[in-house]
Amino acid sequence: MKIVVTGGLGFIGSHTVVELQNEGFEVVAIDNLSNSTEKVLDGIFNITGIKPIFEKLDLRDKSSVQFFFKKHNDVDGVIHFAASKAVGESVENPLLYYENNINALVYVLQELKSLRNPNFIFSSSCTVYGQAEIMPITENASVQPAMSPYGNTKQIGEEIIKDVAKVTALNSILLRYFNPIGAHPTAEIGELPIGVPQNLVPFITQTAFGLRKELAVYGNDYPTSDGTAVRDYIHVVDLAKAHVIALKRLLNKKNLDKVETFNLGTGKGSSVLEVIQSFEKVSGKKLPYKIVERREGDITAAYANTEKANTVLGWKALSTLDQAIESAWKWELKIRS
Fold it and tell me: Contact, 316 vs 310, CB < 8 A?
């Protein structure tokens, strides 16, 4: 079966391509290389022995999207990762986020209507919950006003998919994930942000390696155990495997609704200082950091209730925080060697 993975050379996309190929799927990866490089293809090949079909394509170009799906009109499903994803950047440049995250989604969905198997996995986010009132967060939690344009694009994206599914043959699973970290255990692929990292763990590893002077911890006056923000950090390989399981659920017509939603996390929240402590433990290095002002768009805490994913989807996160952090450090050391 042929599966299209948009954003297929990105952090989560590349790990999902690996898991798809390991399961025997033929993969066509789309990426505009705005936050990745073609070298990722070599890493995927070194792990799986297969280089996926790759098309350099900007999904904001409607005619290019139309041409792509005319060329690949025999696909059995699409996993849609392609999006800008930094909360802070979205606050500073909201129009970029609305153009990239909404327009690209609409153009892809328009082409899915003509596919024989319009199966669609959407890369959503726990940011759709805003600052949830109850922890851990279940899929039934009310969707609060988004705290950032990025979160808003995910809320809008989910609404668009639900509206389309009502009037077309589209079947979709919305995967709301929490905070993906880590790298493949081979250290062949991992998180490699272009420019200054927007996410915590690559900033930690780059600081420890000496590329950054010190880590900024945004706020220590949150109502948490140590005053720093709490998130649910999930190993990217566990996350990638969930996408394959969700895809198979659609392909085997096991979905109970045209649009299903699952939280993907570990079920455990860790503070920023706890993540730093984990890194120092697995690396044996002391990390320089300083406390700075809170960052606009950030929430106090978010961690998942994973019961639905565990029981209905049949998926569970297996890696610990230490294992995920250790894999990220191993990746950092390899790419800098």
Answer: yes
The CA distances from residue 163 to 27, 142, 160, 206, 218, in Å, are 28, 19, 5, 42, 37
User: E-assigned strands of 205-310?
Assistant: 215-218, 230-231, 233-235, 259-264, 270-271, 289-292, 301-302
From CA 29, how far away is CA 36, in angstroms rounded? 12
Helix (H, G, I), strand (E, B) or coil at 15: helix
Per-residue pLDDT of the chain (337 residues), as tens digits, is 999 999 999 999 999 999 999 999 999 999 999 999 999 999 999 999 999 999 999 999 999 999 999 999 999 999 999 999 888 899 999 999 999 999 999 999 999 988 988 999 999 999 999 888 899 999 999 988 888 999 999 999 999 999 999 999 999 999 999 999 999 999 999 999 888 898 999 999 999 999 999 999 999 999 999 999 999 999 999 999 999 999 999 999 999 999 999 999 999 999 999 999 999 999 999 999 999 999 888 889 999 999 999 999 999 999 999 999 999 999 999 999 8
Q: How far apart are CA 103 and CA 237, in angstroms?
A: 28
Annotation says 98 is catalytic: no
Q: Structure tokens of 102?
A: 């909404």
- Helix, strand and coil percent figures for the chain, each rounded to 5: 40, 20, 40
Residue 58 to residue 66: CA distance in whole angstroms: 12
Helix (H) or strand (E) holding 5: strand 2-6
Given the residues 150, 177, 222, 303, the one annotated as active site: 150
| E strand or H helix that includes residue 77 | strand 77-80
Spatial distance between the Cα atoms of 76 and 250, rounded to a whole number of angstroms: 10
pTM of this prediction? 0.97
Q: How far apart are the first and last CA of the chain?
A: 38
Residue 100 and residue 84 in contact, taking contact as beta carbons nearer than 8 Å: yes
Burial of 142 (0-12, 13-18, 19+ CB in 10 A): exposed
Q: Position 283: which residue type?
A: S
